[in-house]
Each structure stands twice: as structure tokens, then as C-alpha cells.
Amino acid sequence: MADHSLVRLQDVAAHAGVSIATASRMLSDPSYGGRAALRERVLASAAELGYRANPHARALATASSTSVGLVVHDVRDSYFALLSGGVISVAEREGLLVNMVCTYRDPARELEYVKRLIDQRVRALVLAGSAFRDTAHDAAMRTELLAYQESGGSVVSVTRGRDIGHLVQIDNIGGMRRLADAMVELGHTSFGVIAGPLRLLTVRDRLQGLRQGLKKHGIVLRRDDVVYTDLSREGGLSGAQTLMSRRNPPGCLMAVADVMALGALSWLRSNGISVPEEVSVTGFGGLPAAVDAVPRLTTVEVPLERVGETAMDLALRPPSPRHTVEVEGAPVLRESAAAPR
Amino acid sequence: MADHSLVRLQDVAAHAGVSIATASRMLSDPSYGGRAALRERVLASAAELGYRANPHARALATASSTSVGLVVHDVRDSYFALLSGGVISVAEREGLLVNMVCTYRDPARELEYVKRLIDQRVRALVLAGSAFRDTAHDAAMRTELLAYQESGGSVVSVTRGRDIGHLVQIDNIGGMRRLADAMVELGHTSFGVIAGPLRLLTVRDRLQGLRQGLKKHGIVLRRDDVVYTDLSREGGLSGAQTLMSRRNPPGCLMAVADVMALGALSWLRSNGISVPEEVSVTGFGGLPAAVDAVPRLTTVEVPLERVGETAMDLALRPPSPRHTVEVEGAPVLRESAAAPR
DNA sequence: CTGAAAGCGCTTACAG
DNA sequence: CTGAAAGCGCTTACAG
Predict the structure, then answer these.
(1) A107-120 pLDDT, tens per residue?
(2) Which of A66, A92, B93, B173 has the fewest CB atoms inside 10 Å of its own CB, making it the most exposed?
């Protein structure tokens, strides 16, 4: 049991007195028949020598690995951290290793990483971050993913906009529509929206849902009711500042993501503006931090960990037929939103 | 540029009219001389054919890969999410892929994963989670890591307790000592400690620091002043409940981690106990959420992302000489802690 | 500087 | 059911 790295299949075979082919079969194919005595001998030898297969040799021979690729925009964001947690636990259950990369919302980086992962022959590719509005990038991604899928890879997206692979569809539009609807029914008439970069499809969808919800009641957002900032706490801070500095500050501040709403809450607090008395605030996502916020954050709750698990589950299925799992977003009204005074 | 996965080095060599050996050298060894004309021809062919080296073939031939392993306890915890963000960005800079695994604080799982990663011939192993107090496990880990290091692998721990590889040493003891000290100087005399599982060295260290800080002022914790719970928000909730339900509730609740303190804050709020008027609360870590908490959380701030970057930086260095980078934890006093009434 | 060849450690048709 | 052999796609001594 010395340095295992020196133990090759060959050594096991020799030790067990069988051919290397037989050893390979006994060790890696449970459904393989073979004489029970032989099998035991091989397993015993492997155990005794501390044999561990070289995954690269295996990958080279079989043209497939035992890893999966996980592409997120930013792990530091709890949204992705939770989702990743879900992916990782299902992957573990299946004995798969997870290769995680962060694009920081840069399409070029995303493409580069996807290529890298495909080159690694990952078994599956989970694309967790929102797709971009970028035709050239889409085309390049499609080319990669198509070839990947044809070579046996499995792809699942947690965003619309990729006409390939399985899909975990978070109902961004519907969730935000219902939330906006609820805000109007609470009595709000003036809104300020803290949005992220418009090149993200997810941002567009949430914005669209928001508009639908308001429109239902005849409310239409004007150009400067929406401010586009970074999809982060800091973005939320600056967004709140911009909107609250207008001559007519809105009565309800709706952010397209919890992190942004949390940032907004922080800015409001620092500036002595009380929530929900002077302004209501809402988010989207359902981060644990939303529950601990003071006042507790009204938001659209999405079961992020389960989304990750579902994505990884789908990744295990054959690419055809394509599956779509819809995930509802449930508006949860908490203290950060109330009827305007 | 059809299906790249069919393009092998051989094809590039043929296309460029050189031997496969030359093609290999031109493509993967920038320091290789060679006729400039030839080099250009090879590069052009590779580009034209859309060649991408098979990393497994490369790994098999060189016995080393272009990935690093990252072992954390739980990505869903912001502490590790931030740290991972740091590791990932430095890895990206170096063109390395990160294999991330979560142990959920289970030694057996940790060992299993470490083996898996070593088998993958990861270039480096970043062990970010606290080590355990478990002699058998330590021995097994040591054996693995030693062999790994001897075969050229680089290991760095963000915890004491592993006498091997580089070390990013967060000053758990000192940070907690200074924080406890500050609490006493604020006027506190009775303490309740929300601790995590004692099998984690990090928990032990923070506890030790805490005791040192109190002892300096002649304060000694009694047995039931400390409650050991899960290292999570829920643990914090139940810990606060236990301690505040005593006949003599403490005036200052100190948790060994921010998530726990946040959970405690939540429990106190739900139960109408005001902070810091009735009880002060402190954490450890410096999560962004600590700043957004209400009242803002007093804690020991650790630059988590930088810790991750530093760890990955060290991972790039040769194993010898061994480096230790000390990271200070700075107590930051915020509204959650105040003089007792 | 360049090429022919062996080797990295597996898997898997192909025979027997 | 088992084994000898070819092959997966690279790298790297070893010659020239």
C-alpha cells in the first residue's frame, strides 16, 4: 500500500494472476459476468495494492469523464452559491466531480469556459447564469453546445434563450408580475425600479413581468422610473440613491434581485428614510438574507437549492427528449412593503 | 472548422506538413526554438482546423492536469462562497479550472474527496475548511497529502492542524481574544457563547481566544455558558434560545461565526428581545450580511475573498520552502454590541 | 532544430 | 468467459 500512484491496472492484474483486460472488466463493469472466484481475487488484489484508476487514462479511452461543468455568473452571490449547493449535492450522489467557473457576466468569458469544459469531456454542462442578449455570442455558444451534445454531452440551462438541452425555467415573468400586482393592490401608484444590465435575459424578463403587473392596473413606467445598475448590493445602493433623489421619489422601490434590494435597504437606512413608512422595497430570489433583513424583505421566493438539484438531475437524463421543468416564483409579502401613507 | 472534437494533433501536423512531435512542441512549448516559419505554419493550421488539445491525453502523458481542487465545508455558506470566489479568480488568471467539493463537515467525505482530487492529478489542492480533531482521519489525510506532494502536487490549508503544505492562517484566537476583550471593556460581565461542533479546530481556536480575552479580566466561563450547536443560521437560532432561556440570561451573546450570530439576532427579534438594549450580540467572519443586519453586527472581520486569493497564490508556489501567511481578524464594533444597562 | 518511436494507463472490439 | 492487441491523443527522451 505504498505509493498508490505507482499502482496501475497492470499491477493488479499481475497480482491477481489474470490478464489486464479481465482486471479492467472486473473492476469497472459490475454487470460483467466472469467467474466469481476471479472477480474476488481481482477486487482483493486491487484493495491490497491500494489501486485507484487513473481517470485521465479512462477518459482518454472512453472519451468521457466523471466530471460535470457548472457555469455561474458569480459564486460570491448567495443566489448562485445556493444553486451550486444543489448541483453539488446531486453530483456527489452520482459520484461526479463538479468543475465550477464564474463568468462575472462576461459573455466572452462564458464562451471560453464552456469550451474549456467541453474539452475536458465533462459528462454534463449546467449553465446556471442568465443568457445574454447577444446574437453573435449565442451563435458561438450554440455551435459549441450542439457539437458537445452530439458527442454525448448533456446540457441544461437555468435560463431561457438557449434552444438546446434541458431547461429549468424559473418563472421570472410571472413571479414579478404577481409581485407588481400585489404592490398595486397594496395601494402603490408610483414605482421606482432598480434593474440590472439589460443584456441579461433574466433582467429583461423580470422587468417585463413587472410592467405587465402594473399595466393590468393602468400604470405605465416612464423612462426615468427605471435605473440600470450593477447586479449587486452596490448596484442596489446606487439605484436607490438615484431613484430617491428625484424630485418625486417613488412610493415603492422594486429591485430585480434580492442582493440589490438589500443594498437599497441599506442606503435607505443610512439616509434615514424609513421602510415601509416612506417607501416600500421589494426584491426577487428569496435569499436567506431576505428573511433576516430589517424590515424583512418582500420578495419572490425561488427554491434555489432545489433549482440546482433539479438542474443536475436533468443533466443525468439523455438529451432527448428535451425536458423543461418550470419553477414557480412565489411572492412573499413581508414588512418591507406596506400600503403607502 | 467542423466538429473540432475530431481534430487531433495529428491532423494539425499533417495540415502543416510537419511531424506530430514538432506540432506538439510548437503548440505547447512557447520557449521552444524552431524555425519561425514552421511555428507560424503550425499555429495557422491549428487555428484553421479549430484544434483544441485533449487535456486528458495531455494529463496522461505528463502526469499532471490543469485543474486545482478546492475543498470547502459548505458553499451555501457565504463564508466559503466568498473564499471560493477568491480562489476561482486567481485560478482563472492562471488558466486553471477549479474542482470544487463540499464536505459538509464530514471527515470521511473530506478524505474521499481529497483522494478523488488527487487521482485527478489536480495541480494543487486548496483545503479551505477547518481541520478536524480526529487522529485517525488526520493520519489518513497526511498519508494522502504527503504522497501527493511528493508526486509534485501543491497543498495549501486555510486551517491549522495539517503539518504539511502552505498555510493561510486566519488569526482565530487573536481575533476572538480582542473581541472578547472589547466586550468586557464595554462593561459586560456575563456571557453566553454559541459555539459550533468541538471537533472543528477553528471552533476550538475561537473558543480559546474568547476564553483568553475574558480571563484577562478575571472572567471565567462556566460549563453551561457555552452551547454547542450546528455551525449554521439554525444553530444560531437554537443556541440563542437555549442561552436566553436560562434563569440568568447573559448580557452578551458571542457566536463563533457570523451565520450563527445572524441566526441569534433573528431569534431575539422574533422573541421581542431588543439588541443591544437587553443583550449584545457578536459574530466572527465579516460577511457582507453582517453589515446589513439590524442592528449591524459586531464581529471580527476577515478579508475572506483575499484569503481565497492568497491561498490560490500560495498553491502556485513550489511546496518547499513552506509558506505561512498570517491573516489578522479585526474586531469591528457595531450597533449589535453596547454597554449593558 | 526535427522526426520516428515509445510510453502514459486505461478500455474494448476481436478471437479463441 | 478470458486474453492479446490495438487504440485513445498527447509528450518526450533518443537519434539524427
Answers:
(1) 999 999 999 999 99
(2) B93
